[in-house]
Amino acid sequence: LSLSLIWFFVLHFFFFFFQAEDGIRDAQESRGLGDVYKRQVPNVDVSSIAVSPNQCAIEAELDLKIDFTLDKAISNSVWEIKYIVDYTNKRKELVMGKVEAGDYAANTPHQLQFNVPTVDVTGIRESLLLNVGLLLAVLYTGEEEVIQISMMTQVTKTFDGKLHRNIFNPLE
Fold it and tell me: CA–CA separation, 145 vs 41, rounded Å?
C-alpha cells in the first residue's frame, strides 16, 4: 500500500473513532414536534467518576461512584449499569444492575454508588471481550434517558492467559 493510502485510513479511523469526545452524552433534544413539545430533561454536571478496582482481573469486584448535580429536580430516577461489547454485527450486552435512586433535588450534590462483587462475563466469547467495550451508566427518569456516561473498557490477556480490564475515566 502507498503511504498516502495508509494515512487516509489512519485519519478516517481517528476521525470516526474519537467523535465521542469525553464519553458523556446528554439526552438528545426532541426534533419531532418543535415548540409544541419541550423536553424537561435537566442538564447534568458530572464532577467525578471513580472506578475501583481498576487494571485488574475482568471478573473482579466493580465499585462505581459518580458525583453529579442537576439543574432541575427529577423523580422516579433509576441508574442502569451495563457492559457492552460490540464486534461487527455481534453485540453482547451484560446488564450488571440497577440502582433505584428515587428523587434528586436540583442544584444539590448527589452520588451514584454501585457495587457488584464479581463481573460475570460467562457466555461472552473471549474474542469479543478482547475488543474494546463500554461500561455504561445511564440515568433515567421514568422512561426518559437523562444522561449516559460511557467508560471505554480495554480487556487484555496477560502472559498467564487471564483476562484483565482497564476502565478509562472520561473525565481524565
Answer: 8
